[in-house]
Design brief:
The complex is a heterodimer of chains A (about 525) and B (about 500). Chain A has helices spanning about 20-35, 45-50, 65-70, 90, 110-125, 175-185, 200-205, 215-220, 220-225, 255, 290-305, 315-325, 350-365, 380-390, 395-400, 415-430, 465-470, 475-480, 505-520; strands at about 80, 105, 130, 150, 160, 165-170, 190, 225-230, 235-240, 265-275, 275, 280-290, 310-315, 340-350, 375, 400-410, 440-445, 450-460. By secondary structure, chain A is an alpha+beta fold. Chain A has 4 domains: about 1-30 and about 280-395, Alpha-Beta Plaits (2-Layer Sandwich), CATH 3.30.70; about 40-150, Uridine Diphospho-n-acetylenolpyruvylglucosamine Reductase, domain 2 (2-Layer Sandwich), CATH 3.30.43; about 160-275, Uridine Diphospho-n-acetylenolpyruvylglucosamine Reductase, domain 3; about 400-520, Alpha-Beta Plaits, CATH 3.30.70. In chain A, the strands form 4 sheets. Chain A has a 7-stranded antiparallel sheet with strand order 15-12-14-13-17-18-16, sandwiched between helices. The longest helix of chain A is centred in the N-terminal third of the chain and has 20 residues, at about 20-35. Chain B has about 500 residues and is of the alpha+beta class. Among the domains of chain B are: about 125-240, Uridine Diphospho-n-acetylenolpyruvylglucosamine Reductase, domain 3, CATH 3.30.465.10; about 245-355, Alpha-Beta Plaits (2-Layer Sandwich), CATH 3.30.70.2190; about 360-455, 2-Layer Sandwich (Alpha-Beta Plaits). In chain B, the strands form 4 sheets. A 7-stranded antiparallel sheet of chain B has the order 15-12-14-13-17-18-16, with helices on both faces. In chain B, strands 5-6-10-8-9 form a 5-stranded antiparallel sheet. The radius of gyration of chain B is 23 Å and the shape is globular. At the A-B interface, helix 9, strand 9, helix 11, helix 13 and helix 19 of A face helix 8, strand 9, helix 10, helix 12 and helix 18 of B.
């Protein structure tokens, strides 16, 4: 069905501030998730995973240890478990899938205190979990047993910003949204955007090498991070907080800490290159009939929208069906249902030019029949509304009772095949269908430019049968296509045993060597990663 | 300090304090027999007369010359692996070599190390036009990579003046910066995967890596810029961008460096996504270049203290022209710039770039030059050039003949905070060298800059890492070298 692009109303003006409203709305949805989830008590990780045992090398905290921490930290920097405070906020992960039993949270206000804590813990062999905003999805920042939690929340100062180069230096505990707000006032933008931006910390974002929606345009953190301040497991402070975009002196050590998930050092400071704030935003929502057409549209967008292309998201039909059930009051942007949908965002410095490029692009792909239907946001409200159809998918996937989430990378031509294969496997096992079958369906959506697929298996309940059908099937499938079992979310505790599906034994050995070298006592974020 | 010499003196003679490591075996006939058993005739160059192997022993700047009498040119990764395993077992020192275009002696032997050349590994392995992922052997020459991608409507995310000689693997090993850095960023962000042969011969490959792969430490990052000291890069996977359909350039005359910075901020705001280069040159650089390019008309009417070349590239020429024209008008009307000229066509575009690309050659044309490649915060970027000029003037060394220094020139990439300092000289003298070093390095350290923004460490800047790196960082680096190359056979006497 060929549908004319809606005539743009004159005088419409997009301001970046609109993105806040969208984010605030999104944050509201997340709060609802939390409220809903509190009805289900999180089980202890140690009970759910009886095969994982507490490492006997690690000391149990004593009053001597507590006295030491009291001698270097103020009262507000120490949180202890008590009858009225079980520290569940710190012990449970964002998804409420993992729960540790830590009795002590330390929240140092300076790098020197972090250093003293780690030096002591290393000497005494006390296990430590560094924690930022605790928004990770693979249990990477919560204790498994009784590890001491070292929170970076009190390290929350902006240290420096150079408005000429755009280089921001800040403490690791600065909340991502606050960092972005700060540079926005000076016409810059953080090169990364996450749904969890209201909670996650800059240091945690770097430690997990978060991807997010801006990777397509601004690249990965390996290119944006200019320097780091890190406290090593033995307490030594390594300061590479450079202001230089180019520094070709020696091995680029900071790169190892990006994505290391707090296993070889605690990031306490970040120097990062922010980007000029775009003056114009546009969003269009399109439908196509096959995943091959999704790829065709992507190729054309890269050619014709090129430097203004800032997001290219695809969603499958079922993901939008689920989203509809959550967005009851919102009108679906298109008239009919289609096998695949595409959300394209452009951002640039000149609205007229961007509008013109987008119009020409859409005319071309619709005339050629690759795109069957589409709309362009006419104003800020519509722009936010179109984004909702993408951003609501995680919430919608979970609304029937739960979701099994997989975040994987695959070559583009194979990107959607995992969803098809998973649905086929679930059907074959007669697990998918209407109630009382436990699986609603496997849906797929993701970032095309990054080759990143989010596979969400929406379920009415969690059960062993589903899990056995999905794993290791999903990982074996990804491996067979030379993909990665974790595109964005990292390894954490959840995917610790699956690294072999994406890395060779030689690579895994090299990684283990690095861990042993920097953390010989294994105290830093144990039981995870590798 | 880098001094260009017409014919290189033996490094061993020029630097008598550097001794051959007695742990390294001297090559013998059994070693030769082994290499002949795994390599074909055309993969081995062996001569007892080092002059015959001069192009492998001597660096691009003709400052360093080794005495290797064996060059191995394997045509596969497996052969590289066998060579490294054998050399590691026998403790034979090895220097990996690509196009040998680096500027700090990183890819030539110091004594009699075996040269392992990648030039026979020159195949494009794969290209995915949907994602832009390009995979090739390390020995593919940059010019050929550019041409291949150009034919497929893509652009390699890095461009270098030495593109006709340098190889993709060497570019990655030295973490070259180049002219596209402002637009496409660093290799740390653009390289997706590497295939590397470790000193012990093990092959480590994540060349099939995708754009997002968040599983474990990102090991490839260590090999980017490692200058062949912990592994030999044999294959590269990199993301190529869509080729721009429109190119434009404008040349400005400006009176002070503060205004250069203001212009940069304005360009980032108004040209934003189409800005692909922002180069500055000082008066001295352009004066040298005007003399050098005698017959080429200077694009501006007057002389100025500073010049800026801005390049834009995008997908729509009309839009880009409008943006750049508006930018030029606005900066002229507000008197931010004294003078500006916009390219009218491709020939104009190339001519404007000639004024930037000719600066190094122009500075070198009086007899030689001392080159420094450094990073500083933008506000301090030009201060090192001014400080050096003042120091040379105070010593009465700059001026007309017979004074030895012609001019002290500063130019570079503003967006990267990268300044190239070129001291154009009629002759090399100890007095100049003593004035420049360690003054330049100490100055950089005092401003918390980097002594090597682009060119790396190599042999030339070994021992100078402490001007930029802390003791703990240097120790960490040495740990890594010792861990991966416990026998120290891979590219010894350099780096750290």
């Amino acid at each position: 069905m060929l549908r004319n692009i809606l005539v743009r109303s004159t005088g419409s003006n997009f301001k970046f501030a609109g993105r806040y409203m969208k984010s605030s709305a999104l944050l509201g949805y997340y709060r609802r998730v939390n409220y809903y989830s509190t009805k289900i008590q999180t089980r202890l990780t140690s009970e759910n995973y009886p095969d994982v045992h507490r490492d006997p090398r690690f000391k149990k905290l004593t009053s001597d240890d507590l006295n030491y921490f009291k001698s270097i930290l103020s009262e507000q920097e120490i949180l202890r478990a008590s009858e009225s405070e079980d520290l569940s906020f710190y012990n449970e992960d964002w998804m409420r899938k993992y729960k540790g039993q830590s009795k002590l949270v330390l929240r140092p206000k300076s790098v020197e205190k972090v250093s003293l804590i780690l030096n002591y813990c290393n000497d005494e062999k006390i296990a430590v979990v560094p924690q930022g905003g605790n928004t990770g999805l693979v249990g990477g920042s919560v204790p498994i047993f009784d590890e001491l939690i070292l929170s970076l929340a009190n390290l929350n100062k902006i240290r420096d910003f150079d408005p000429v180069s755009g280089i921001l230096k800040c403490d690791a505990g600065v909340i991502l949204e606050n960092a972005n707000n700060y540079v926005m006032e000076q016409n810059y933008m953080f090169p990364l955007d996450l749904g969890a931006k209201g909670s996650c910390h800059v240091g945690g974002v770097v430690a997990t090498n978060a991807g997010g929606l801006r990777l397509l345009r601004y690249g990965s953190l390996h290119g944006s991070v200019l320097g780091l301040e890190v406290v090593m497991p033995n307490g030594q402070i390594v300061n590479s907080m450079h202001s230089m975009r180019k520094d070709n002196t020696g091995y680029d050590l900071k790169q190892l800490f990006i994505g290391s998930e707090g296993t070889i050092g605690i990031i306490t400071g970040v120097s990062i290159l922010t980007v000029p704030k775009p003056k114009a935003f546009n969003v269009s929502y399109l439908s196509v009939e096959s995943f091959e057409d999704v790829q065709k549209v992507f190729v054309r967008a890269r050619q014709e929208l090129s430097e203004i292309l800032s997001a290219f998201e695809f969603m499958d039909a079922k993901s939008q069906v689920l989203a509809k059930s959550q967005l009851k009051d919102a009108a679906f942007p298109l008239e009919d249902e289609h096998p695949f949908y595409i959300l394209i965002e452009t951002s640039g410095s000149n609205k007229d030019h961007d509008d013109s490029k987008l119009e020409t692009f859409l005319e071309n792909v619709m005339e050629e029949g690759i795109v069957t239907d589409g709309v362009v946001a006419q104003d800020e409200t519509e722009l936010q509304n179109l984004w909702k159809w993408r951003e609501m998918i995680p919430e919608a996937s979970q609304a029937n009772g739960g979701v099994y989430k997989y975040d994987v990378s695959l070559p583009l031509k194979d990107l959607y095949s995992l969803v098809e294969a998973t649905n086929a496997r679930l059907s074959e096992a007669e697990l998918v269908g209407d109630s009382p079958k436990p699986v609603v369906g496997a849906i797929g959506y993701g970032h095309v430019g990054d080759g990143n697929l989010h596979l969400n298996v929406a379920v009415r309940e969690y059960n062993k049968n589903i899990e056995k059908t999905l794993e290791p099937f999903v990982y074996e499938f990804v491996s067979s296509k030379h993909g990665s079992v974790s595109a964005e979310h990292g390894l954490g505790f959840q995917k610790k045993n699956y690294i072999g599906y994406s890395k060779s034994p030689e690579e895994v050995k090299m990684m283990k060597d690095l861990k042993v070298h920097y953390d010989p006592n294994g105290i830093l974020n144990p039981y995870k990663y590798i | 300090m880098t001094a260009a010499h017409p014919v290189a003196q033996l490094t061993a003679e020029a630097y008598p304090k550097v001794k051959r490591n007695p742990n390294f075996k001297v090559l013998d006939s059994e070693d030769l027999a082994y290499f002949r058993s795994i390599l074909s005739n055309d993969e081995i160059l062996n001569s007892q007369a080092p002059e015959e192997l001069a192009s492998f022993n001597q660096d691009w700047m003709k400052k360093y010359r080794g005495q290797s009498n064996l060059i191995l040119l394997p045509n596969s990764t497996d052969k590289v692996s066998k060579i490294m395993k054998y050399c590691n077992d026998k403790k034979l020192a090895v220097v990996p070599q690509g196009g040998n275009t680096d500027l700090v002696g990183a890819s030539v032997p110091v004594f009699d190390e075996i040269v392992l050349s990648l030039r026979n590994m020159n195949k494009v392995r794969d290209f995915d036009p949907v994602s832009g992922t390009f995979k090739c052997d390390a020995g593919v020459v940059m010019r050929d990579a550019h041409q291949f991608l150009h034919d497929h409507d893509h652009i390699f995310p890095l461009d270098l003046p030495s593109r006709n000689n340098c190889q993709v693997g060497g570019v990655v090993s030295t973490n070259a910066g180049g002219l596209n850095f402002l637009r496409y960023g660093s290799l740390h962000g653009n390289v997706l995967g590497l295939e590397v042969v470790l000193p012990n011969g093990e092959i480590i490959s994540n060349i099939n890596a995708l754009r997002k792969d968040n599983t474990g430490y990102d090991l490839k990052q260590l090999f980017i810029g490692a200058e062949g000291t912990i592994g030999v890069v044999t294959g590269v996977s990199i993301v190529a961008a869509a080729k721009p359909k429109a190119l434009n350039a404008v040349f400005f005359g400006i009176e002070n460096f503060d205004t250069v910075q203001k212009l940069f901020v304005k360009a980032k705001s108004e040209l934003s996504e189409i800005l692909s280069a922002f180069e500055f040159m000082d008066r001295g650089s352009i004066e040298c270049t005007i003399e050098y390019l005698k017959d080429l008309p200077f694009p501006l009417e007057n002389q100025h203290n500073f010049y800026v070349l801005i390049e834009t590239s995008g997908s729509n020429k009309r839009h880009d022209d409008e943006k750049l024209t508006a930018f030029l008008k606005d900066t002229t009307d507000s008197k931010l710039i004294s003078e500006g000229m916009m390219a009218k066509d491709k020939a104009d575009f190339d001519r404007l770039w000639t004024w930037r690309k000719s600066v190094p050659t122009a500075c070198n044309s009086y007899g030689g030059m001392y080159k420094y490649d450094m990073s500083l915060q933008l506000k301090d970027l030009y201060s090192v050039s001014a400080a050096v000029t003042e120091r040379l003037n105070a010593a009465g060394l700059i001026g007309d003949a017979p004074k030895p220094v012609v001019k002290s020139c500063g130019y570079g990439h503003v967006g990267d905070g990268n300044i190239h300092l070129n001291i154009a000289v009629r002759e090399f003298t100890k007095q100049i060298e003593d004035l420049l070093e360690p003054f330049v390095y100490e100055y950089i350290a005092s401003k918390k800059g980097s002594i090597s923004a682009e060119h790396g460490i190599g042999f030339h800047k070994k021992g100078k890492l402490h001007y930029t790196r802390s003791d703990i960082e240097i120790r960490f680096m040495k740990d890594i070298k010792n861990h991966y190359d416990p026998n120290g056979i891979l590219n010894p006497y350099k780096y750290i």
